[in-house]
């Protein structure tokens, strides 16, 4: 059963304004629709699925010898965020009475006083559910950001970075636009599902981390290609499905605005994908699967701040503009000489900016009111709200500067701490992050043996006489023997290949 009036389904009249009341003597679910709560729980699970989606995407985009490292840093970043959000992240982003426009206080420290009262984000769901759903947003943003370590970054310093980045970058940005005390919220900035904290936050932070980390070995960049396009496609599909929970769930209820957000997300993503593929075809005269994936992601990024504000026709236009803008933005890293290896800035930073600008012009009061709660909320320029575009641009500039500068400072401070140097050694980069940092691989050891340079790389090609060969660290004796044999015979004919040893079935790897 739904409700027939504008506003919350039932007026909150609990015995405790903070907790909602005592669950031993009263039903704390009475003020909420069961369908709304179920929908947000499922949406949270869908958003969580985006984390392994990002892991597969980044793993496929990297070289094979660093593929597992990308899986590890993305998944471990979720572990760090889960602790940070419980510890003080939710409180810093969504405490209700901080009394300042920048960041929250410790009112909800350790998830205290987060229970059955209506959430700070919407009267449709309780604070306990809202905090869980918002944790997934922070986790996805951290996973996107940490892709900056690709192929040359040490993993433990990166996890230290994630904790402090979530505290000092993500939480303030979320507070600005989603907390009723935040300055962006007060001025009416339109950000539906995270153009500021998620997209600009991840894009600018990844750019800053890449800048501090430094460029990859120039010799290794020759003829670089993603190692597994199937993984890239799998990751993109997981992201696309999860994004429907990301954008659809940001209506905070099973309502028409959620349906519109899902429609707009698909329209924007698919038109951006077609646009990106056409732009790539004009150069290569081939139809790129990686191009389709990149275009889809750029469109969904642009839909993140805008899908709950725009009419479908405006979302189609947004997809085309986002596809063009993000495609050309991939060239920016060459101009500024920052090795944003996975194009996080080009797709997420630029895509989020495009979506926020579209909100300022095309935002519609009619679409906003579809949730049954926010009727009367001001739209964009076409609705007569002429000042909102200025606030949108001010927020874009402030959030970009904050995310880049604070992330760069955090990364540099961590890099200066003994034992926490961000960059791996040159030998480790040549050998691969999987071998150097993990001793494990995305594929079995036969795959590693097949690619000689993946486990015994040379600084020069061919190897110079007397040059030390970097031996593998993964404990396979036959590989080390082959490496030594290859080095000793470098001036003579290649040795006859021996048959591989028969594995002992009783011995585990």
From TrEMBL:
It is found in: Cell membrane; Membrane. GO terms for cellular component: plasma membrane. Keywords: Ammonia transport, Membrane, Transmembrane, Transmembrane helix, Transport. InterPro entries: Ammonium/urea_transptr, Ammonium_transpt, Ammonium_transpt_CS, NH4_transpt_AmtB-like_dom. Its main location: membrane. Pfam families: Ammonium_transp (PF00909). The chain crosses the membrane at residues 38-58, 70-88, 128-149, 156-178, 184-209, 229-246, 258-279, 291-310, 316-336, 348-370, 390-414. Residues 478-509 are annotated as: Disordered. It comes from the Eukaryota. One of its GO terms (molecular function) is ammonium channel activity. The keyword Iron does not apply. Residues 38-443 form the Ammonium transporter AmtB-like domain. This is Ammonium transporter.
């Amino acid at each position: 059963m739904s409700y027939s009036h504008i506003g919350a389904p039932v007026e909150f009249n609990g015995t405790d304004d903070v907790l909602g009341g005592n669950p031993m003597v009263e039903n704390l679910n009475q003020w909420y629709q069961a369908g709304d709560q179920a929908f947000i729980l499922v949406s949270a699970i869908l958003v969580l699925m985006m984390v392994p989606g990002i892991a597969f995407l980044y793993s496929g985009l990297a070289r094979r010898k660093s593929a597992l490292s990308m899986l590890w840093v993305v998944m471990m970043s979720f572990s760090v965020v889960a602790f940070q959000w419980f510890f003080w992240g939710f409180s810093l982003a969504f405490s209700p009475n901080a009394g300042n426009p920048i960041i929250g206080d410790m009112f909800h420290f350790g998830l205290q006083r987060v229970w059955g009262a209506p959430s700070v984000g919407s009267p449709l769901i309780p604070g306990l559910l809202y905090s869980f759903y918002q944790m997934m947003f922070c986790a996805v943003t951290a996973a996107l950001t940490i892709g900056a370590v690709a192929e040359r970054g040490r993993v433990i310093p990166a996890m230290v970075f994630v904790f402090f980045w979530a505290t000092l970058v993500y939480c303030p940005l979320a507070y600005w636009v989603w907390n009723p005390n935040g300055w962006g919220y007060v001025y009416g900035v339109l950000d539906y599902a995270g153009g500021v904290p998620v997209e600009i936050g991840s894009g600018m932070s990844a750019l800053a981390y890449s800048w501090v980390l430094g460029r990859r070995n120039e010799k290794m960049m020759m003829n670089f290609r993603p190692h597994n396009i199937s993984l890239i496609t799998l990751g993109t599909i997981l992201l696309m499905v999860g994004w429907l929970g990301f954008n659809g769930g940001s209506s905070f209820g099973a309502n028409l605005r959620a349906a519109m957000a899902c429609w707009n997300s698909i329209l924007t993503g698919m038109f951006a994908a077609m646009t990106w593929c056409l732009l790539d075809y004009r150069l290569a005269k081939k139809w790129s699967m990686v191009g389709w994936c990149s275009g889809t992601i750029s469109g969904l990024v642009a839909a993140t701040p805008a899908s709950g504000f725009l009419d479908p026709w405006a979302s189609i236009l947004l997809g085309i503009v986002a596809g063009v803008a993000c495609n050309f933005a991939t060239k920016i890293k060459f101009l500024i000489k920052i090795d944003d290896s996975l194009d996080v800035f080009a797709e997420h930073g630029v895509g989020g900016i495009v979506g926020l600008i579209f909100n300022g012009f095309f935002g519609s009061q009619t679409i906003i009111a579809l949730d049954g709660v926010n009727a009367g909320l001001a739209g964009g320029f076409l609705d007569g709200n002429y000042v909102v575009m200025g606030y949108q641009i001010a927020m874009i500039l402030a959030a970009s500067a904050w995310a880049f500068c604070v992330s760069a400072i955090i990364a540099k401070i961590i890099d200066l701490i003994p034992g926490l140097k961000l960059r791996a050694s040159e030998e480790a980069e040549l050998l691969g992050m999987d071998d150097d940092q993990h001793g494990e691989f995305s594929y079995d050891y036969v795959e590693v043996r097949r690619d000689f340079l993946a486990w015994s790389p040379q600084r020069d090609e061919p190897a110079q006489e007397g040059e030390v060969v970097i031996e593998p660290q993964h404990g396979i004796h036959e590989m080390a023997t082959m490496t030594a044999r290859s080095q000793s015979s470098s001036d003579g004919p290649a040795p006859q290949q021996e048959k591989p040893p028969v594995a002992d079935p009783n011995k585990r790897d």
